Amino acid sequence: MRWLSSILIALVATASVSDAINTSDKDMECTDGLYIVVARATNELPGPGESGRIANRVADRIPGSKVVGLDYPAQFIQPFYIDSQRKGQEALKAVLEDYVDKCSKGKFAVIGYSQADQRNKQGAQVTEDIICGTSGGLFSKVEPISLKIAQSNLIAGILFGDPTHVKGSNFNFGTAPYSGIWNRKSSSVDRCESLSDRIRSYCDKGDAFCDKGSAVDEEVHRAYVKLYGDEVVDFIAQRWENVTGSSPRRESAESIKRWGGPNSSTYNGSTQISGDKTGGGGSENNSNKSNTNNGEGGNPDAEEGAAASLRLIAGLIHAGLPLFILCLFHILH
């Protein structure tokens, strides 16, 4: 497999490594509410992106909140995914640490999501890496935020379609019976487990990137906001109340009309959002938590052979040649 490694190294070497760390919150100030950072999807316009819908709905329920779109490339080719993901790690770590340095008692939430571009789930991987630790392998070894910050300041970490999703984890939600296309270091998973009261990783069966063993359904990765938006808004609002003692308000009709949602006729699964917004009770439950050890047809591990590999490869074609080569490298090693 030396030829495959050589191709991969050459692709990685073409990525730029000179861009400075930058975030969109140039005039950071402490908020009375929740500081919500959103790592947008690959190829989405700068700003919070599609998942900004969820973030802004949370801001409506928690007065004094602010939504910030993470400023990082979020690109697939220019720069190459691995380099873009590293820049996202660095940017997210910087903005969270800067906020806590300035606002030691401040509370923040992070949402990592890739809904608008079907090819990969960059924002979710960046988010989990900085909360729990690097995914390992060929990806950057950027250190996560300190455990003290994660325990004291993090209200919620929300992941949608994470390609390093690990089946059987206590912080998993959704219907996926398998793990993602890339491995995640056990030390990172262990740290996420220790924070499982505030982390939710959503992955549904058929998502080609977070559920590598199932038959690919191209529409699955597009539906997370619509399927889980209400649940996530309620979860973050309830976490805020549990930690701070401040009751969130009911979501306004204008918020639902403006930002959309499953109960709004204005919801559009492809609308993009850019820019920052300063915002003005549900209950925690595991009703939609996935039983990741029991997929249809028995033990998920039983389908790790040629058929599963072929389905995975078919799905990865959508990601383009560079990502396909990267994933194939992991499969063969």
Task: Tally the helices.
Answer: 10
Biggest beta sheet attributes: 7 strands, mixed
What is the tally of beta strands?
7
Task: State the fourth-level CATH superfamily.
Answer: Alpha/Beta hydrolase fold, catalytic domain
Give average pLDDT, whole number. 72
- Estimated radius of gyration: 19 Å
- CATH domain class name: Alpha Beta
Signal peptide: 1-20
Region (Disordered): 244-302
Keywords: Disulfide bond, Hydrolase, Membrane, Signal, Transmembrane, Transmembrane helix
Transmembrane segments: 312-332
Description:
The protein contains ten helices and seven strands. The chain is of the alpha/beta class. The protein has a single domain (2-332), classed as 3-Layer(aba) Sandwich (Rossmann fold), CATH 3.40.50.1820. Strands 5-6-4-3-1-2-7 form a seven-stranded mixed beta sheet, sandwiched between helices. Helix 2 runs parallel beside helix 7. The protein starts with a helix and ends with a helix. Residues 1-23, 115-120, 262-288 and 290-333 have low confidence and may be disordered.
What is the gist of this entry?
This protein has 333 residues and is an alpha/beta fold. It has helices at 2-13, 52-61, 81-102, 122-132, 147-152, 186-194, 224-244, 253-259, 306-316, 321-332, and strands at residues 34-39, 66-69, 107-112, 154-160, 172-173, 199-202, 277-278. Helix 2 (52-61) links the parallel strand 1 and strand 2 (66-69).
How would the blueprint of this fold be written?
Elements lengths: L1 H12 L20 E6 L12 H10 L4 E4 L11 H22 L4 E6 L9 H11 L14 H6 L1 E7 L11 E2 L12 H9 L4 E4 L21 H21 L8 H7 L17 E2 L27 H11 L4 H12 L1
Helix pairs in contact: 1-10, 2-7, 3-4, 4-6
